[in-house]
Amino acid sequence: MPAIRSRSTLVRRGIAVVTALPLLALAACSYGSDAKDDTKAKVAAGSKKIDGLDSVKIGYFGNLTHATALVGNQKGFFQKELGATEAKYQTFNAGPSEIEALNSGSIDIGWIGPSPAINGFTKSDGKNLRIIGGSASGGVKLVVNPKKIKSLKDVKGKKIATPQLGNTQDVAFLNWIADQGWKVDAQSGKGDVSVVRTDNKITPDAYKSGSIDGAWVPEPTASKLVAEGGKVLLDESTLWPDKKFVITNIIVSQKFLKEHPKAVEAVLKASVDTNKWINANPDDAKAAANKQLEADSGKALPADVLDPAWKSIQITNDPLASTLNTEAEHAVKAGLLEKPNLTGIYDLTLLNKVLKAAGESTVDDAGLGVK
């Protein structure tokens, strides 16, 4: 289990990010079309615009760890709260393109993984984004070829895929390797374990061909490997306190947050309402998420992939800030990141306002909120 070190190691005086940090920017998984614009939102008759805005542009990835955005889009939760302000959607394949879209104003609010959120915040010296809410926990597994790997100790000497150098899963796997007492050069991936950086889209084919022996990957890639005969050797959630760790956050551009707080609050209310509906109606929510995946990418997930993948993801309003803090520390430990100053990466004011109004528990920023 990874130890959560003192927050002071991260909130002390910020140091410039090393060259490798941009590689942290790939989010949890890469499915759906790149920057696909969906303007089909239905606006209720008689509704009023929020903050005088014609639209709010929402970005997300086409994968199950972004279930809040998928279901909120499919079931109309965002549009309901935004009234006559149209909810427009874009889907992305990778963190860098979503951060670029946020910086350019092509989107206003986005669902994204922890590594690109850290990257976007630190590269701009804390000036371009805020994390304003949580969305999902879990959904990451080490899946292996059971003929070649029968126990955790058998991972040594094998070829294991991660999505990209420095991405969220890559950092987690490097940290786990170090905890075993094994040595791997983070940049090359060579050492006691061969870490093979492989796009999630082609990881199942690489597994079938035998070019990798397993993979530390998010859903639904993990369940795709299981459908190909792989075995779950380790669920990353078992390495964390309470089996919870952030896999998806909600971010907003600081400019949009400052100029349009009512619109941001409306999106957060829709997110909280969506999460409540998902947790109360898991089967219907799973079907809605898959329907939106099909609309975004042209292909739905088969049941043998969808069902186990959905079960491993926890939908939550809590951004699990202390675990983002720890994930950043793991990147520092791996030599992929110099100690950043993450103070101010969170602003949970509006989320906690929404949660209080809904009679739900408020959430904590682990000391990394706006001062």
UniProtKB/TrEMBL annotation:
Keywords: Cell inner membrane, Cell membrane, Membrane, Signal, Transport. It is found in: Cell inner membrane; Periplasm. GO terms for cellular component: periplasmic space; plasma membrane. InterPro entries: ABC_SsuA_sub-bd, NrtA/CpmA_ABC-bd_dom. It comes from the Bacteria. Pfam families: NMT1_2. Transmembrane segments: none annotated. Residues 1-27 form the signal peptide. One of its GO terms (molecular function) is ATPase-coupled transmembrane transporter activity. Belongs to the bacterial solute-binding protein SsuA/TauA family. This is Aliphatic sulfonate ABC transporter substrate-binding protein. It comes from Streptomyces sp. R41.
